[in-house]
Design a protein that fits this description.
Order of helices and strands: EEEEEEEEEEEEEEEE
CATH superfamily of the largest domain: Nucleic acid-binding proteins
Number of strands: 16
CATH topology of the largest domain: OB fold (Dihydrolipoamide Acetyltransferase, E2P)
Distance between the termini: 45 Å
CATH architecture of the largest domain: Beta Barrel
Radius of gyration: 19 Å
Shape: elongated
CATH class of the largest domain: Mainly Beta
Length: 191
């Protein structure tokens, strides 16, 4: 096999080629007309087959995948999606130095109809979610009872909110807000 190093270090989601030039090999995925890295590693070109692949630099079990339970914070919101920075893979006890990106769609909040993502999560909330796909950006679900918001902060004073009458309540500002609260919610939560 005739190999050529394309790039010494690539990260998940990084473009390493286009489908007009190469075939997508192991450790890559196709996104439109681009070939992106699925893992942290070295981008290698198999010259004979015109196939690009990523040789892993870290153990594969340290990369999240379908079924993993992860913890992250809500970074931004739109009407029907939340962008989540995944900071920990709970089921494997791994904390990431560089977070992975996750997307929580409103359809993955509950088994019942939810009109807006704002009724489930807000920016700065720390959530516990399950990954439902195998490539970045990771699709997340909080439908299960123990998934959802682990810790929420008041939008005005930024104090931790407590649960009162099955809603979140800020003792300082007296604000009440609704979220999809995990059964593991705690004002003492630590990553």
């Amino acid at each position: 096999m005739n190999e050529k190093l394309l790039k010494d270090v690539v990260v998940p989601g990084e473009v390493i080629g286009v489908i007009e030039e190469f075939l997508a090999g192991e450790g890559t995925y196709v996104d439109g007309d681009k070939i992106r890295s699925l893992r942290i590693g070295r981008a290698i070109l198999d010259v004979d087959e015109r196939k690009v692949y990523v040789k892993p630099m870290i153990r594969e079990e340290l990369i999240p995948g379908r079924g993993d339970v992860v913890i992250g914070d809500v970074h931004s919101l739109k009407k029907d999606v939340a962008l989540v920075l995944i900071r920990k893979m709970e089921n494997k006890g791994v904390i990431f130095n560089v977070p992975f990106h996750g997307i929580l769609h409103v359809s993955q909040v509950s088994n019942r109809f939810t009109e807006s993502i704002l009724s489930a999560v807000r920016v700065m909330d720390i959530i516990r979610a399950r990954i439902i796909n195998n490539k970045p950006p990771f699709q997340l679900s909080i439908k299960e009872k123990d998934l959802g918001v682990l810790l929420a902060f008041c939008p005005q004073c930024h104090n931790a909110m407590v649960i009162k009458d099955r809603k979140l309540y800020c003792p300082a500002c007296k604000i009440r807000e609704e979220r999809k609260i995990s059964t593991k919610y705690s004002v003492n939560f630590k990553l």
